[in-house]
Every structure is written in C-alpha cells, then in structure tokens.
Specification:
With about 250 residues, the protein is of the alpha/beta class. The protein is built from seven helices and eleven strands. The chain has a single domain, classed as Glycoside hydrolase/deacetylase (TIM Barrel), CATH 3.20.20.370. Helices cover about 45% and strands about 20% of the residues. It has a five-stranded parallel beta sheet. A two-stranded parallel sheet has the order 2-3. Helix 4 packs parallel to helix 5. The longest helix has about 35 residues. It is globular, with a radius of gyration of 17 Å.
Length: about 250
C-alpha cells in the first residue's frame, strides 16, 4: 500500500506554528527514509512511500529542494493556486516576517528536475464546509490553471486532511487520479502522516509503520490537534485578506 509523509516548511528560521522542520532535521529524515523505505511517486509501485509538501512555501525551493537533489529523491509539492508567487497571509516568523509562496520560475525549475506538482485547491478552504459548486470550483479551477502552466496534474491534497465521499467523487469527476488525505481506502484517499518540528527519525518510522500501535495512536491524536489549530490560522488569513482588500479599495 502506498502511504505519504507530509511536510510544509523547511527553514532555519524559527516559526510559531508546529508544521515546519529545520534543514538538517529534514535531511536526517530523508536519509532515514531512503535507508528503510522505497520512495515512489503515485502509480510507480503498489507499495511505497510518497514524500509530499503542502502549501508550496518558498522554503521548499530554498532548503528542501537542494536536499532532495543531493539524495536523488523525488517528491510532490501541492500548490495553493491563489497564492503562487505571493506572500503568506496567515503564518509569521519570530521576527514578524511573512513567508512567500513559490513563484512560477521556481516551480518550472523543480518540475524540470523531476518534482511533481499537484493541487492544494485554489484558496485552501475546508472543502467539507462548502457547497458542491464551491468544491467544484476549488478542484477544477486550480487544476485548469496548473495544467495551463506545467502540464498534467494528477494529484490533489485535501486541505486540513478534511475529505468525505462527496469530495472524492467530485475529485474523480474533475480528472484527479490520486488524492492525499483519509485513511488509505483508495487511490483518492491515500493516507498521509504530517511531520513536525517535534519529530525525530524514530517517531517518523513510528508514523510510517504505525507501530508500536499505542505510540502511533497518540501521534495521530497530536496530528488532529495541530490540524485544528491550522484551521484557526486560516480564519486569521481570511480576516487579514479582507483587511488588505479593504485598504486597497480605499
């Protein structure tokens, strides 16, 4: 069975959120994964581990991409289409600086090396709270724009790991072959394990192997708690975006 590990940011700068890793820490994870598991992209093998990055933060290009090239490891980066080449409106560093998302130049360079890109929707909304039309827009428009720029897009990563049967069906109708989120029931519900600043190579192996089971269950609860906090950051993003739009209108 194919399973995924999910990163967000790889940066030497301290972040307030938990969804980031130091570059040396990340390289340690890649070394460990290469030794113990078969790293694949969807469709290559029936079993294996897929390395993914949600959001498309610029730090992926600056700090993770060099490590992936060094070790010859491919990955999938999921892009929030409305934020390509723009500043992040919700998370900030210790010094109050906002990070930037990948631009097309970085995306092209990474794609040409062998990194695959997928959709993380248009605006990173919780799809389970949206109408059918809104879900359809988030899925179809992001795929259309990405494919007009970089070619075929096979994969979708569901924001906040929130997904249900309706979303899976709409993803299938919109031409996605692989979806990341859920419990691993199908190619459109590939299970992913989030990797945080608090993780070690040992805890990463626990996530992937799901053993020892008691430790793994505790970690899944921790992932769920952090997920709830990330939804709160997106509410902050929405309020910030509205303030920016109001300021520009005046």
């Amino acid at each position: 069975m194919v399973k995924a590990i999910q990163f967000h940011r790889v940066t030497p700068k301290f972040q307030y959120c938990g969804t980031w890793n130091y570059p040396l820490q990340f390289e340690g994870f890649i070394r460990s994964v290469k030794c113990d598991f078969k790293v694949v992209l969807p469709g290559e093998e029936r079993d294996g581990l897929v390395i993914t990055f949600d959001d498309g933060d610029m730090s992926v290009y600056r700090h993770a991409f060099p490590v992936l090239k060094k070790h010859g490891v491919r990955a999938i980066v999921f892009l929030i289409v409305e934020y390509i080449g723009k500043s992040d409106l919700w998370d900030i560093t210790l010094l109050g600086k906002r990070s930037v998302h990948l631009g097309w130049d970085e995306i092209y360079e990474m794609r040409d090396w062998g990194i695959e890109f997928g959709s993380h929707t248009m605006s990173h909304r919780n799809l389970t709270t949206l109408s059918d039309d809104e879900i359809g827009y988030e899925l179809s428009e992001s795929k259309r724009i990405l494919e007009s720029k970089i070619g075929k897009v096979r994969c979708i990563s569901y924001p906040f790991n929130r997904v249900n049967a309706k979303i899976v069906e709409l993803a299938r109708r919109n031409g996605y072959e692989y979806g990341f989120g859920g419990a691993g029931q199908s190619d459109l519900l590939i299970k992913k394990e989030a990797v945080y600043i608090t993780d070690t190579p040992w805890s990463l192996r626990v996530k992937i192997r799901e053993q020892p089971f008691a430790v793994y269950r505790y970690d899944r609860i921790k992932q769920q708690v952090i997920n709830y906090f990330t939804i709160a950051t997106m509410l902050t993003k929405k309020r910030t975006k509205n303030r920016v739009q109001d300021a520009e209108a005046h």
